[in-house]
Amino acid sequence: MNENRKLRLLVGKVGLDGHDRGAKIIARAFRDAGFEVIYTGLHQSPEMVVATAIQEDVDAVSLSILSGAHNYLFPKVIELLKEQKADDIAVFGGGIVPEEDIPGLKEAGVVEIFTPGASTDSVIQWVRQNIKPRNL
Amino acid sequence: MKDDDRKGSRTLGEWENRTLKPFTDRTGERDVDFSTVSSLPIDRLYTPEDLGPDWNFDEKVGFPGEYPYTRGVYPSMYRGRLWTMRQFAGFGSAAQTNERFKYLLGHGQTGLSVAFDLPTLMGRDSDDHMARGEVGKEGVAIDSLADMEVLFEGIPLDRVSTSMTINAPAAVIFCMYLAVAEKQGVSFDSLNGTLQNDILKEYIAQKEWIYPPKPSIRIITDLIGFCTRSVPKWNTISISGYHIREAGSTAAQELAFTLADGIGYVQAGIEAGLEVDAFAPRLSFFWNSHNDFFEEIAKMRASRRMWARIMRERFGATDPRSWMCRFHTQTAGYSLTAQQPYNNVVRVTTQALAAVLGGTQSLHTNSLDETLALPSEEAVTIALRTQQILAEESGVTNTIDPLAGSYFVEALTDRMEREAMEYIDRIDELGGIVPAIETGFPQKEIADAAYRYQQQLEDASKVVVGVNKHRMDEKSKPDTLKIGHEVEEDQLARLEKLKSSRDQAAVDRCLAALSEAASGDENLLPLMLAAVREYATVGEVSEALVPVFGRYREVSFI
């Protein structure tokens, strides 16, 4: 039964970064692709994002970061999910992330990072292949 | 041969039937969507018919330096003085940015432009819990006057013009600038520069706010009132379309929402008891220059004509300087690609040329590596050289508004004006820009346009070279600038030291006086100036007003 339910994705803006063009586009594209989408709105702390993710029973958290604070914010969200025993929630994201930072982020547990120019279609395909409904 | 074959067509319709159709029947036309980057359809050919029977040169175009300023705000334009080449810079610590400023001034740049980091833009100190990981990342970290003193160390403030891209806490940062001037012995009336100070576009697009619209506008009118009396050469608001465009608007939406913001500020100034001609001459604008060459030129030309009419007819301004839409332009950050980044130099050149032909007063050209990281020194130099080549080699500065009279450019200018005016009318129907923002109207229009454009990129009906066409495998990326974590550590240490060495009792007194004044109608600027002189921080001054003003919360939607 679980296998057939719609994926629930949280699209989050974490930190003080106000650039929400990408987050809104990906949120709409996810919705149009048939996923259930929760958009956090702007200026969320890692704690707020994790609380929403758990409360909303999402399958994955997708973060958009264009502020250069990705090396702090991604690992922080993952650490908090672990603390809450919710690290079966996958974390992926996109934004202005220099290539050389990506291996470190993946090591910290970020499943995938999409950089400028990635099509929403390629992100949706990736989600379909890599994100599975959690057993709740 | 018949006689009329030699005469040529007399109308567009005749030409289409007689000459074009037989030709395209054989060869066809390319199967692409002939439209601007904003999806405005463009015709094959423009003729006097497109201007309509009532089109009047004096009314629509006229002469430079004269109402309605379509051809430029100054009579001599670039023959008199070139535009100000103003590269936006700021990263890391105040000392690092000070070094970059001196580098740019040493290489022929003529004005400074400060980029602040996100915590500063949000009115938060570096030690705020939300600031973790963001200190000095996207701009320079400024907590107090002590940082501002370092930022402008060795730069005499009466000899540069300084543009500061700061909005929600603009008044606080401006007071710090004034305090630096005091320390340098520079009088306020010799200060030149621009404060972005455009909170309305923050709610619409850039999203860096502190308080709700009403109290935010009160701070702005206080600042305008203060400058009108004491800092007369300062440009008090740079009403900005740039971020609206970056958020995904069309060119016409950028024009419309920005002018609507301008109307909002002028209205607020008048309601605060200021004489329109006392403050309107110090309002300026800030446009984005995107890839679509003619659309941008038309937008800029239309902006001058529209603002002149709005100020004269709607607000009854009588000083010609109140009618002038003077503006800064920045090339479109969003248009740059991480793929084949050197191609960005060409994009920036086209966009910069459009800004020049659009009659800009100052220009920032983006660096080729901006989608990868903060710009490196080499990339910044190429961007500045691009402007210098346009100014000194291309010959486009020899004559004023060279595209005037082009059937296409004039028709497109008229069209921009019409489309933007329709939006402004709708905003008026909603009760003005603040109620429009509160209902999410401009935000929704922009999000829809951004999504539409993204779909056009994905189906490749709009081409981005290197991204959805002409792709290739790439091995190396240009070197980029990195901001290390030590910037945050150093800044936190500086701030801690400052807080323990200043006169805390004086700080507390100043902040209490400010909180108290917020609930009355006293001008807040002198009180803010007093507080920053005592080294009260951006965060402390901003927080002091929260109990009275509240915090803004956006209703978010997708």
Automatic annotation (TrEMBL), chain A:
GO molecular function: cobalamin binding; isomerase activity; metal ion binding
Domain of life: Bacteria
UniProt KW keywords: Cobalamin, Cobalt, Isomerase, Metal-binding
Occurrences of domain B12-binding (ranges): 6-134
Regions that span the bilayer: none
Pfam families, sorted: B12-binding
Keyword Metal-binding included in the entry's annotation: yes
Cofactor (UniProt): adenosylcob(III)alamin
Keyword Secreted: no
InterPro entries for this protein: Acid_CoA_mut_C, Cobalamin-bd, Cobalamin-bd_sf
Protein name (database record): Cobalamin B12-binding domain-containing protein
Organism: Candidatus Polarisedimenticola svalbardensis
Upper classification of the organism: Bacteria, Pseudomonadati, Acidobacteriota, Candidatus Polarisedimenticolia, Candidatus Polarisedimenticolales
Automatic annotation (TrEMBL), chain B:
Annotated SUPFAM superfamilies: Cobalamin (vitamin B12)-dependent enzymes
GO molecular function: cobalamin binding; methylmalonyl-CoA mutase activity
Keywords (A to Z) from UniProt: Isomerase
InterPro entries hit by this protein: Cbl-dep_enz_cat (IPR016176), MeMalonylCoA_mutase_a/b_cat (IPR006099), MMCoA_mutase_a_cat (IPR006098)
The keyword Isomerase is annotated on this UniProt entry: yes
Domain of life: Bacteria
Protein name: Methylmalonyl-CoA mutase family protein
Cross-referenced NCBIfam families: acid_CoA_mut_N
UniProt xrefs under Gene3D superfamilies: Methylmalonyl-CoA mutase
Residue stretches making up the Methylmalonyl-CoA mutase alpha/beta chain catalytic domain: 36-551
Transmembrane segments: none
